[in-house]
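Session log. Operator J.P. requested a structure for one protein chain; no other inputs attached. Running the standard single-chain path with token output.
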Amino acid sequence: MEIVDARHKAGHDGLGGEGRMVLWAKLKEFVEGVAGDESRAHTLREEEFRLAAGALLITAGTIDGTFDKEEQGKVKALLERRFDLDPAEARALFEDAAARERDSVDLYRFTSVLCRELDQDGRKRIVEMLWEVVMADGVVDEFESNLVWRVAELIGVSTRDRVTLRKMVEARLYD
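Structure written below.
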């Protein structure tokens, strides 16, 4: 007991100045690691969101059996604009999303990500982008229209909003 009291009186707590610095450095490293994990998780979620959106846009362009230059150009332009990417970044995202789209067996893989990451306005924007892709070649066939309907239903965009968004895009493109 006297040893502890003597140390305490002398201002020693068992950790010298160097020991306190090591402890402080480890605590700082731990806190930065936790913050870094959150940042990495956010980056991964953002990348997953971009790939899901890109894959659905590519599906919209390919579902009619042709993916012409107008549709490809529209998808790349939408990716650039929506995610604030330069052309090279948009091209890389397009290629990665195309690979994901080729490997997918259903829409849920992508729509579940959109539901998790987007609010209602963001979901409506995805439906609007889908309409822009399917209308890029000037023809909306039944497969394309059905795809937009299915995606809208899966991400919680109402029929009314889906139809309103279609009319908005038509007015913008054809007027």
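Operator note: The chain is about 80% helix and 0% strand.
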